[in-house]
């Protein structure tokens, strides 16, 4: 099928066979509800598929809803829609002011803008003649609203498509386990893109065993050597660590003092650049001390590393190379991310250091080496979703490498190179990983093989959440049916945050139709308890964090 000439005058790229097949299948389903999982390896050209589909729907005189994770982090996708489709694209995100929002609303209402592209709340936007819903990076946790009205924009997008009687396309290189399960159950149809666009080779991924390696600010000699070699060849390198700041904790070697946050069960992070100790959970700050606040010793040492420390180390190792750090601190000012990205695209040999901001949707064709400083955090977390998140992040980061003519390499530093999940990820990629990890979930009875809801409670007095939750448990105890379990009350993983004590009760059921009647009962019990007035509580159905 013919694609329209883009608004910028260039010719659209030729589709590879899998892309063409995906476009044809979804177009064939226009006019009725159908759910598709577009599972495409990074660099396989999912965006081009979205664009062709949007063009088809526009040609039929109808409208398209496109949901993206966080618009500030995916400017390239938004730009491609605008460049290609010209006017007629409404971009909706949290940084619009009221009059911009009002204008966008008018344009959509009058049918001038028939592509509505935005972050999660856009799923509720009124759109006439909706004929296609697209959710890009459907695995991204930012689709879940975490406070107030808690909802999953991805799940609502599927419901909305069903109501509108139109197809929904969920796209990802690393689909959520929920969506993979829906494919398995026949609820979603999978469209594969296994081949990279433009014939680029997939990156080669290797584990770097750092058990007996001396580390310099977390970087091993083999990794530093590879970085040096790649830069010397005039190519670009990306070093990834998902922790901003200089170091996650400051410690006194004389008395053992640690930089505890006064309001949370967490440490304040060392931020050297700003001269601060800063809690990433509640935002509390204090000046970076030069002496121990308890014993007065000067033996204060930052422990562990963040991107700031990695940057400092790399600057010392490679003084002649331009170094660009991309994380929330370095991009806090509006427009600074775009500015940094321009520098990357303009320069030759560049060393990029960053957090997950680097993993999201950006295209760095000249990066041929990605170094992952630490993959181990996700392997041993108490959160059963941590391995899924780790694999998604590693695959997304790896996908930044070698999108140009030269193949990319990914080196992952780990102290657990034999870990079965890491092994399967390296050998078989995300697909094999997901298969293995889903087996573990099935054996443990965790979602997506069960359904959960979390009753979260917090209060300024330590015992109140427990008392409230115990009241709920006692009242519910007689009404539990087969196949429904209550776990708790237990303290939250971070029992105190922002000066409030937190606990929760987990409700789990094998079937959703068993869960919901119980939740109705639970809500009426919770509302009626006298303790309810002394605590803050909320019910989170399908929680994705804080378990
Ligand atoms: Zn001390
Ligand atoms: Zn705090």
User: What Rg, in angstroms, do the CA atoms define?
Assistant: 25 Å
Sequence stretches where pLDDT stays below 50 over 5 or more residues: none
- Principal-axes shape call: globular
Structural class: alpha/beta
The whole-number mean of residue pLDDT values reads: 91
Number of separate domains: 4
CATH class group of the largest domain = Alpha Beta
Count of distinct strands: 24
Order of neighbouring strands in the sheet with most strands: 3-4-2-5-6-1-7
Say which molecules are bound, naming each kind only once.
zinc ion
Main sheet properties: 7 strands, parallel
**Could you tell me the strand content as a percent range?**
15-25%
CATH homologous superfamily descriptor of the largest domain = P-loop containing nucleotide triphosphate hydrolases
Number of helices: 13
Which terms would index this structure?
seven-stranded parallel β-sheet, 547 residues, Rossmann fold, single chain
Question: Care to describe what's here?
Answer:
With 547 residues, the protein is an alpha/beta fold. It has four domains: 17-198, 3-Layer(aba) Sandwich (Rossmann fold), CATH 3.40.50.300; 200-245 and 305-444, P-loop containing nucleotide triphosphate hydrolases (Rossmann fold, 3-Layer(aba) Sandwich), CATH 3.40.50.300; 247-304, no CATH class; 451-541, 2-Layer Sandwich (Alpha-Beta Plaits), CATH 3.30.70. It has 13 helices and 24 strands. It has helices at 17-29, 46-59, 75-85, 98-109, 153-164, 177-184, 221-232, 307-317, 336-346, 386-398, 420-444, 464-476, 512-528, and strands spanning 34-40, 63-67, 89-92, 115-118, 130-136, 167-172, 189-193, 204-209, 215-216, 219-220, 236-240, 249-252, 269-271, 276-278, 285-287, 300-303, 322-326, 350-354, 367-372, 409-414, 451-459, 484-497, 500-509, 536-541. The protein has a seven-stranded parallel sheet with strand order 3-4-2-5-6-1-7, with helices on both faces. A six-stranded parallel sheet has the order 8-20-19-11-18-17, with helices on both faces. Helix 1 packs parallel to helix 2 (46-59) and helix 12 crosses helix 13 (512-528). It is globular and about 75 Å long. 42% of the residues are buried. The structure holds zinc ion (ZN) (2 copies). Residues 252, 254-255, 257, 292, 294-295, 297 line the site of one zinc ion (ZN). One zinc ion binds next to loops.
């Amino acid at each position: 099928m013919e694609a329209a000439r883009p608004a910028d005058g260039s010719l659209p790229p030729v589709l590879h066979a899998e892309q063409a097949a995906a476009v044809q299948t979804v177009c064939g389903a226009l006019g009725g509800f159908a759910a598709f999982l577009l599972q495409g390896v990074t660099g396989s050209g999912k965006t081009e598929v979205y664009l062709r589909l949007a063009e088809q729907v526009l040609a039929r005189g109808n409208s398209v809803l496109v949901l993206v994770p966080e618009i500030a982090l995916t400017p390239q996708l938004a730009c491609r829609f605008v460049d290609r489709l010209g006017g007629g694209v409404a971009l909706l995100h949290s940084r619009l002011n009221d009059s911009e929002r009002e204008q966008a609303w008018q344009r959509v209402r009058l049918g001038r803008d028939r592509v509505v592209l935005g972050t999660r709340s856009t799923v509720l936007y009124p759109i006439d003649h909706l004929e296609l819903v697209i959710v890009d990076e459907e695995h991204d946790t930012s689709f879940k609203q975490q406070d107030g009205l808690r909802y999953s924009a991805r799940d609502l997008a599927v419901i909305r498509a069903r109501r509108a009687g139109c197809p929904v396309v969920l796209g990802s290189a690393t689909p959520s386990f929920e969506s993979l399960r829906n494919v398995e159950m026949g609820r979603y149809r999978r469209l594969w893109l296994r081949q990279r666009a433009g014939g680029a080779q997939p990156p080669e991924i290797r584990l770097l065993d750092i058990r007996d390696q001396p580390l310099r600010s977390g970087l091993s000699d083999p990794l530093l050597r590879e970085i040096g070699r790649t830069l010397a060849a005039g190519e670009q390198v990306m070093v990834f660590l998902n922790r901003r700041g200089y170091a996650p904790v400051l410690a006194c070697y004389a008395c053992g003092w640690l930089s505890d946050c006064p309001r949370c069960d967490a440490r304040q992070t060392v931020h050297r650049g700003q001269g601060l100790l800063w809690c990433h959970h509640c935002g509390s700050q204090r000046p970076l001390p030069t002496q121990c606040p308890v014993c007065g010793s000067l033996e204060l040492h930052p422990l562990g590393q963040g991107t700031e420390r990695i940057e400092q180390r790399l600057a010392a190792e490679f003084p002649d190379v331009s170094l660009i750090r991309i994380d929330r601190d370095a991009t806090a000012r509006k427009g600074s991310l775009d500015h940094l990205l321009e520098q990357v695209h303009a320069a030759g040999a560049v060393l990029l250091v960053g957090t997950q901001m680097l993993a999201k949707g950006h295209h760095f064709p000249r990066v041929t080496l990605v170094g992952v400083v630490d993959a181990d955090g996700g392997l041993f977390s108490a959160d059963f979703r941590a391995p899924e998140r780790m694999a998604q992040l590693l695959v997304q980061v790896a996908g930044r490498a070698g999108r140009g003519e030269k193949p990319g390499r990914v080196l992952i530093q780990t102290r657990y190179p034999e870990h079965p999940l890491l092994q399967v990820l390296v050998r078989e990629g995300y697909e094999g990983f997901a298969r293995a990890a889903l087996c573990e979930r099935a054996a443990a009875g965790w979602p997506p093989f069960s359904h959960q809801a979390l009753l979260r409670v917090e209060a300024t007095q330590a015992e109140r959440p427990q008392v409230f939750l115990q009241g709920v448990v006692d009242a519910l105890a007689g009404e539990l049916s087969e196949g429904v379990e209550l776990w708790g009350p237990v303290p939250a993983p971070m029992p105190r945050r922002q000066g409030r004590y937190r606990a929760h009760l987990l409700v789990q059921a094998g079937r959703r139709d068993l869960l919901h009647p119980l939740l109705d009962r639970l809500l009426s019990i919770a509302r009626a308890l006298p303790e309810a007035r002394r605590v803050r509580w909320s019910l989170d159905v399908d929680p994705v964090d804080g378990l």
